[in-house]
Design a protein that fits this description.
The complex is a heterodimer of chains A (831) and B (285). Chain A is α+β, with helices and mostly antiparallel strands and 831 residues long. The longest helix of chain A is centred in the C-terminal third of the chain and has 28 residues, at 560-587. Classes of the chains: A alpha+beta (831), B alpha+beta (285).
Amino acid sequence: MTVTEDRAATGAPEKEVGKPRRRKEDARLITGRTLWTDNLVLPGLLHMSVVRSPVAHARITGIDVSAAQQAPGVLAVLTGRDLADEQGSLPCAWPVTPDMVNPGAPAVAVDQVNHVGEAVAVVVARSRAAAADALELVDVDYEPLPPVLDMEAALAEGADLVHPGTASNRSYHWVFDGGEAGTAADTEQAFADAEVVVSRRFVQQRLIPAFMEPRSVVVQPQGDNYTVWSATQVPHILRLMLSMVTGIPEHKVKVIAPDVGGGFGGKLQVTPEEVLTLLAARRVGRPVKWTETRSESLMSAHHGRDQIQYIDIAADREGNVKGLRCRILADMGAYLRLITPGVPVLGAFMFIGIYKFPAYRFECDGVFTTKTPTDAYRGAGRPEATFAIERIMDELAVELGMDPLEVRRKNWIRAEEFPFTTAAGLEYDSGDYEAATQKALELIGYDELRAEQRRRRESGDPVQLGIGFSTFTEMCGIAPSRVLGSLSYGAGGWEQASIRMLPTGKVEVVTGTSPHGQGHETAWSQIVADQLGVPFEDVEVLHGDTAVSARGLDTYGSRSLVVGGVAVVKAAEKVVAKARRVAAHLLEASEDDLDFAGGSFSVRGTPGTSVSIQEVSLACFTSHNFPEGMEPSIDAEATFDPENFSFPHGTHICAAEVDTETGRVTIRKYACVDDIGEIVNPLIVEGQVHGGLAQGIAQALYEEAVYDADGNLTTGTFVDYLVPSAADLPHFDTGNTVSPALANPLGAKGVGEAGTIASTPAVVNAALDAVRHLGVTDIRMPLTPERVWRALQGGGDGGDRATAGTTAYGGAQTETTAGVSTPQSSLGGDR
Amino acid sequence: MIPAPFAYARPTTVDEAVQAIAEGGEDVKVMAGGQSLIPVMRLRLAAPETVVDLGRVAELRGVRDDGDAIVIGAMTTHAQVLADPLVRQHAPLVAAATETVADRQTRHRGTFGGALAHADPAGDLPACALALDAELVVAGLGGRRTVPAAEFFVDYLTTALEEGEILVEVRIPKLPGEWGMHYEKFQRVAQAWSIVAVAAAVRREDGHIAEARIGLTNMGPTPLRATATEAALAGADATVEAVAAAAGHAAEGTSPSSDLNAQADYRQHLAQVLTRRAVLRAAGL
C-alpha cells in the first residue's frame, strides 16, 4: 500500500475518502507528547489510592484507618461506611428482563466484598507515594464467605449465594425464540424432525481487555461545578451517569476524555474509581487524581467473555441446516455494571451467523460469581456467538463427513438474496460471502496447503497442518435507537456532529464520538475535505469534552464511522446548503443555478464566476454583505439515527501447525477478506484488522484470566496473562470486497471489531483440523501447548490448567496492590 | 507500583560495594540490572531497607580472555555478552541462551551476573553455567572465593552467596576439542520465561558422541544437569536413534513445579523432547 500525501496535479481536487492517509494524530499519541489524563497537573492536586480486597468473598467486620490517617501527607481516608450515603450504586443501563435481579454495585464496599480487587477504602494524600505508603496501614478485618466461582455449580440448588438476600445466583433468564417471535419455525419441532443433531459444549474463557493506557481520573471541584478528566471511551455517558449516581446536577458536571490510550470496551464503563475520585474531591474540596497500576487494572477493571455455551445444531444428511438451539451461561462476575447483562444479548442475534436457519432459539442465564464483573470487550457478545456457530459448523461437517467449506456454502445467504431477514429477525443489508471466500482462498493458497496437509498426514510428520475457516458476519453501529429500546437498552444509538466554519476558511468538526486510538481525526477530516472541498489539513476534529461536544454517545461497537461519521456528512450537507444561499447572494445568481464542486460555487454556464466556501465563510464573519433575513452563520449540526445496523462480513482462513510432540500451535498462514462496505481510509482499516486479529488470535492461543480455588486472580500480571506481541503473530494477508451498506450514505459498515470477532474460531478450527485424525475432537481455549498435548495423549479437551502462577517475581501475581508480603517475597541472593 | 521507602547506595568499586552492604542494615538487596528486583519492589513483595546498586562499579563489567577460560564480569549486560566475540567463540551456548532472554530492552539492562545470582529456576543462564562447569567468583568483607556452578545454585532463588557477599565474575572454561552447542527454549510468547529449556554442549569424535553436557532450565528449584542422559550419550553413536534413546532419560531426577504454563508431568515430557532436539542440533545431526 502506498501512502499518498500530495494532491494530484490534475487541477481537480483528489477525492480524500479512499486514500490511505497517515493518521494526523499519531505523532502526538505515540510520542506521548499530549494530554493523557495522568499527565495532567493542577494547582493543589492530591492523589488517591485504593485499598482493595485481597479476598474473594467476605463480610467486612471492621476497618481501622487510624494509622493511615496519621501517616505523613495523608489528608483523608474514606471507607465504604463513610461514603455509603452518597455513593449510590454504579449504573447498569441494560436491564435485559423486567425481573432481572440487580443487587446494586457500590463504588466502595460497605458491608461485604464480592471479588478480589474490590475497593474497600481510599486514601487521599499530597503525593502519589504517600498515598501508596498509607494503603498498607489500613487494617481491614474480613470474615470469609465461601467463594462462588463455577457458573454451573453456582446455579445448582443450595449453592452458596454471592449476594445475601437474593433467591439464587441467577440474575436473569433471557430468551429469544424465533418461533414465538414469528421470525422462524418452531425449534423443538425442527430438532424432532432432524436427521442429524450435533451438540457441543464450548467454553468462552474469561479475558482481560488490557488496554495500553491504565485508567486515570482527575476531578477538579470549582464552587458547585466539577470537571472530570477520565481515560474513558464514553465521556458523554459518564457525565450523565455521574450526575445520576451522585445527585450532582448534570449541568454542574463537565467530563473531558483527553487523548485516551486504548479501551477495547474496557473503558466503556462508569468505574468505581471515577465515582470515588469525584466523591473524594468533593470531600476535600481540592483536585484529586487517581491512576491505576497495571496490577489494579488487571484485577479490577472489568473483564470480558466468560460464557459456557451449549449449542445444538440440526441438519439433514445432505448438510442443510434445520435449526439451531443455544443455551448460554454468562458470567456476570460479582456485579452488574454498565452493560454487563446486555453483552450476551448483543450476541443473541448473531449465533446463526450467515446461515439460513429455518428455526432458532436462544436462551441465556446471567450468573453471579465472586469474580471481577464482566462487561464489553472488543466484539461484546458477537465473538462469543461467532465462535459457537463457526465451531459447530465444523462439527456438523465432521459428523456428516463433508468438507467444512461445503457445509457453509450450502447454507449461507447467497449474494442475490440480500437484503435478507434472518431467523433472528435482523435484516442483513448486503454482502457476497462467495466472493469474499474465493478471494481468501486465493490469498492463502488453499490447494497447496491442503496438499501439504495430506503429505504430512501420510508421512506421520510430528508437525501436522490444519486449515480452519470462519465465515462470519456481525452487527455494527449499536443503533438504531428504536431497536435498542426494544431490547430495553437505557440509551439511544444516534450520534451528533457539528461543523464550524472559521473566518480564515479553516474548519472545526465537533464529533460526539470519542476516539481512543481509532483515528477519527484523520477519517473525519477526509470526509469533510470531500464534502466541503477544503484541504484535508484545514480540518480540525474536536472531541471528548462535553463542554465542546455537547451531545454524543461516544465510541464502542464499531459505531463511530457508521453513525458518527454519517452525522458529520449530514452536518456538512447543511453547511453547503447554507453556504449556497450566501454564495447565490454574493454572485447575484439564483441558488438553483449554482454548482458546488471542489469547494467552490459557480454559476452554471457562466465560466469565471465563482466564490469559494472559504470566501463564504469570511462573508459570514464580516456579515457586511449577507442575504436578507438569514442568520450570519453557515455552521451546522446534525444528529443521525440509522434505520438499521450494518452487517460487515468476511472469510478468515487460518493454517496452523501443531507440533504433536510439544503441543505447540503455530500459525503458519492467515488470510482474511473483510467486506466492510465502502472504505474511508484503507490504512486505518488495515490497522484495525491487524489489531483485531491479534486480539482474536490471543483468545484462541494465549489469553485467559484464571482464578484459583480461593477466587484469587492468578493471572494478575503480564507474566501470567499472556498478551501476544508482534513477535508471536504471523504475517497477515488481508483483502477486501465491497458491498456498500444500505443504511447510511457513506456505505460504510464498521471495522473496529471484525478481526477479533472472526479470527478466534478460524484458529481453533485450524488446530483441530490438524489433529482430528489423531483422535482429538475439542481443545479448550486458550490452546496452550499443555492442553493440546493432553488432548493428544488422552482425548478430552485438554482439561483445566494448574491455577498456580509462574514463580516469576516470587509469585507476585496473586497479591493485591495493598502490598501483602509472603514468605516467597523475602527472596534470597542478589538480583 | 511505587516501592516502599528504602536507602540507596551506589558504590564505584567492589570494596565500596561490600562495605555498603555491611553498613546497609538488616535487609540489604544488591541490585545489578534491576530487572527482577525493581518489579518485586514496585509490587511491594520486597521492601529492603537498603538497595546497593552496582551499576557504577566499572570493574564488574566486560569480558576478558584468561588463558584457559573466559571471564565475564558480573555486571556485563546481556546485550554486551551477545556482542562479545570471546563469548561467541568459546561459549556459544551462553550467547544462544542470552539471545532468548526476555526482550531487547531487558537485555540492555539485565546482567549476566544478576541473572545467575538471582537464580530464578526459569532463568536461562544458570543452566548454561552449570552445563559449562563455570566457576563463580564472589567477594565479601573477608576477601574472594570461587564457587563451582554445581555448588552455587542451592535452592529456589537461593545461592551459595553468603550474607554480605556479591558475585564478581564468572569464569567459563574453554572446552578443548570440537564442541557443538545449542539452547532449546520452550515458552508461550517471545518475551516469556522458559517453561522448560535445555542447554546442550556436545563433543563429537569419529562418528560418536564423545561427551555431552546438558543443563535443564526450570525442571526443579535449581538448574539441573541431565546426568542420566549425559551418561547414555557418552560414547554413543551419533545417530538420531541413539540421541532419542538417551534423551528419554532427561527427566530422571527432576522435580519440576506445576503452574499455569505446565504441570509437572508435562514438563518432564517436554524435557525429553527438548533434550533430544537440543542434542541433535548441538551434534549437528
